[in-house]
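Case study 2.
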Amino acid sequence: MSQRGFDFTQLRTFVAVADSGSVSAGAERVFLSQSSVSEQLKKLEERAGQPLFVRGRQGVSTTPAGARLLEHARRILAMSEAAFDDLQGRSLDGELRIAITDYYRPHDIARILKTFSEQHPRLKLHVTVLPSTVIDSGAQDHASFDIGLSARLVSGPGGARATAGSQAATGSRAASTAGTAVRREKLLWASAADADPRPAAPYQLVLLPATCLLQRFVVRLLDEHKVAYVVSHSASGVAGLQLALKAGLGISCLNESSLGGGVVACAANIGLPALPALEFHLLPARAGESELVGNAREALRRLFA
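Prediction:
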């Protein structure tokens, strides 16, 4: 009798490639060569009996069959990891409060948290979206949240870091909130997909309120480079920023995973200064935190990467 079902290793590779959008990026996530990943995907498609990816110059995207398998694969892998943790005595049972910056993968965060919840069905989650400055300022405040995912600017590979939007962080404060880096993305100038590809100065800017340090950084950067601009619209939160950009109200600065849905990166030659990278990090363990929180942070680290 022929064996039914899928190989877990192939499913894990399939999910990594689907999430990253390319074979090369997926290979990095699962620590394999591109050729090994390609071979695994070929075998998985043979097993499925139909194509799972559409391959193009910009990377890969799932076919309808691939999208269906992706949902199954996430649940299968989540249940496998939950079973393993349970048998190892690391099953999460209780309540957990998570604070997340709204710049972190806004199109994917609901799916990531759903996967985490499926992995740990006895865990009750309380999720709050907060600015990075608020999350960092609550790093030692047990009353606000148990685990925080914040963002900070990175000047370059191995360069100095600072809370998102600030030009520098004080030594003691930076050390206390450094945490574990889980993801790094490019910051890009963005506009509506149907906007003029070469907007005229002064640039019409769409910004979050001045309390957002990333937006204050953008203003400082433009002032330093003597770029003429006008703040044409103020939005509330990254979701509001995306809506304003999609409506064609101007240009703004967003991280890679916040693009999409009618919002695209501006051309590189329109006269705007280069931007640093944005790094997401989990705040470090606090003194006296519970074993539940420590185990949950490690489980989230794997999902947030």
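The domain at 8-79 is CATH 1.10.10.10 (Arc Repressor Mutant, subunit A).
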